[in-house]
Amino acid sequence: MRPIRTFSVVPSLPPQLERLREVAANLRWAWNPDAIALFRRLDDQLWESTKHNPVLMLGTIEQSRLEDAANDEAFLLHMERVADELEAYLSSTHTWFDRYHGPVERPMVAYFSPEFGVTDCMRIFAGGLGLLAGDHLKSASDLGVPLVAIGLLYQQGYFRQTLNDAGWQQEFSAENDFHNLPLELVRTGPGEVLRVTAPHGDHDVIAQVWRAQVGRITLYLLDTNIEENRPEDRDITDQLYGGDLETRIRQEIVLGIGGCRVLWALELDPQVFHMNEGHSAFLALERTRRLMEKTGLTFAEAREAASAGLIFTTHTPVPAGHDAFPAYLIDRYLTTWAASFGIGRQELLALGRRDPADENEPFGMTVLALKMAAYSNGVSELHGVVSRDMWQPLWPNVPVQEVPIGHVTNGVHLRSWVSEELGEYYDRYIGPRWRNEPTSEEDWRQASQIPAEELWRLHNRRRERLIVFARRRLREQLANRGVAQAEISKASEVLDPEVLTIGFARRFATYKRATLLLRDMDRLAKIINDTDRPVQFIFAGKAHPRDDAGKELIRQVVLASRRPELRGRLVFLEDYDIEIARFLVQGVDVWLNNPRRPMEASGTSGMKAAANGVLNFSTLDGWWAEAWEAQAGIPDPVGWAIGRGEDYENWDYQDQVEAEDLYDVLEKDIIPTFYDIGSDGLPRGWIARMQATIEKLCPFVNGHRMMCDYVETFYLPSAHQYRALAGDTLQGSRVLSEWKARVRQGWKDVHVQAINAESPGEVAVGSSVKAQALVHLGSLTPDDVRVEMYVGRLNASGDIVDAEMTPMECRRQNGDGIWVYESDATLWRVSGMHGYTIRVVPHHEHINSRYLPGLITWASPDGMTSASGGD
Fold first, then answer.
1. How many CB atoms lie within 10 A of CB 454?
2. Distance between CA 701 and CA 612 in Å, rounded?
3. How much is the average pLDDT of 818-823?
4. pTM, to two decimals
5. Per-residue model confidence as pLDDT tens digits over 636-669
6. Which position among 91, 161, 449, 489 has the lowest Cβ density within 10 Å, counted as fewest Cβ atoms?
7. What is the second-level CATH architecture of the domain 425-701?
8. Angle of helix 684-701 relative to helix 604-611, nearest 10 degrees?
9. So what's the pLDDT on residue 668?
10. Sheet holding 785-794: strands in order across?
11. Using CA atoms, how far apart are residues 703 and 701, in angstroms rounded to an integer?
12. How large is the angle between the packed helices 73-91 and 63-70, nearest 10 degrees?
């Protein structure tokens, strides 16, 4: 039965408790232990049963309990303290950004992501990408970065997980009740909800807009489940990563194009748009369209300004993680819209193809983002290397190490993941700055002052809490499966709070190799059941609903947990979520991660563990590769490595070798170190590694460090570039577009005509070689180009590697478009066989990259040239 009227029912709070409403409405409570303690104090059981949702809690709590709290002076004082602290936090004008980069009235950055993992009760995230986005917002809030965020509000969010008797993953959905979440509809006037449209071929889809306040940061979420939409359009924001390719493209149109229109409707005009993965890449075209509409520029002209303020972060080297749509879906949903601002079908499709001439190539969202963004980055140093190699074809003839994709290594929001008790130690020994400032390595050196006895006692309590939690979750999942009561009772006896506990929890993708530990079951059983030095393992994680190979890995782990020789020492916790993650990263002794290198882009779960003093045991992939290299040789290593970063062509052989190494390190180093108890009852060697982990890794894994890197490496330069091109009604953008068109037109005539250089045969380290090049520029001028000597040692194939570029100076014109360039300061710093060549690249003060795709000319060995032209 459909209602004829609707209305909202809100909690009925006594006047004395009204400030609870403002505390609940701002998601900063999610990383404020004192605020969480306040709600627990009101009703601890209800806090748990509502999945840590203070809005739902206040709407369902018994009125008598509210009346009691209203008359409880101690509770009221606690509430006032929390509310006052929130108010002071929000009104502060002395944030890191204010002090170092000046106050900004409007948001400087718009951050787009398909998922946001801010807290347990808002299930609009699937895993690492969403949790990273949530931590991004929290760190931006703490540092005062002027940022606004855009996402989608999913009616069901990501799937929930159960396991059947065979250990096979089953998926089910749970409806999100938006009106009982820390959300509110954005209103443009009394009774008027903000709505925007997104083009969908022959019609527009309407989305209403919700607001979530994440500390100082506003997160706007689009929701298409409204009566004015067609039934199929109402389902667009139904599930995260659900449905088929057609559902996915429709979601990404709403996110990218609709998200931009939310900003326009609110009269927000951020200078920088940050695309967290390629899902939102259509925003690049919508922003260009908007600039065309405002100024009358052509697409090519407006694109320059739009691109200057675009940043793209790629998160995976796995091909399946990069959305690509067949041309018929682009035709169905976007070609009419693109034609409305002068973009033809072929031009539109070319923007999403590596090879614009390949009619069979799908439209790639990552390709679109890379082509449109002024700045692109991977999420660890190694991932930057992998991404440059993966996407090098977009910059033909550019050496792979110079492909313009940088990196900002991910970080985690420490206050969200560090246990409350350890946080108090950090306050005492590191200083309170760690909570809201990018703390320095010098500050974290004080971690060595945390008394070993206290640190170990604290960690033992956390392990005990984890075991209690794991037993409870196991009992619940067995009860839900309908097993016998005797079997449920046995769940209270699994695991041991005094045994070395190793955690493995993440998405069950095949490259993460969740079953590597199970490769030699006899050896594993011997390790687990050692009488004097036993070991236990806790697994958790989900496989994508369509990833049967990932589900098979879960099944194998579950079946292994039922083997008599492993029972009680190896468990799998269903429905991996923030709550499970938090207990694990705080309570295990070792965090195990064994992806197949180099498939792990970053891997932030291990960072969360490290922030709690938990030791990592991982293949040298993602963030761990650079952390391991940076800490090489320190007296107390911060963890352990599986392998030494080798690459393998035979994956089965790789698994065999690395499984053997995993067992060896466990048996010969990890287990003996943990159980090496001194006369004082403490494992001093283990505690020293915990202290080293906190001291050495916390400054690195810190989300505040990550946010500072983004601000200073990308946000501020991008904003400056955008202002330079967008001023004076985008005159700078028009000039740059005309320059690019002229350079592309004239580049076919650019070549290195001759090289005159010394050929000494041998030179001493530290000496130089003079060179002269005659460069034919045709219709271009020396102001349009940069001519460089490209010098480096030769590898076994005779190619130049580890190159250095030395600019050559234009000395004079020889006539007929030929210019004379000279260089005499190229130094060789190491011995060995070296070589050099000459190259010509475009140059303009307003292009942020050294390269424009297709425009680079190299001298050929015979003195002629090899030129690359195109778009």
1. 12
2. 11
3. 94
4. 0.95
5. 689 999 999 998 999 999 999 999 999 999 999 9
6. 91
7. 3-Layer(aba) Sandwich (3.40)
8. 120
9. 97
10. 800-807, 785-794, 834-842, 856-859, 865-868
11. 6
12. 80
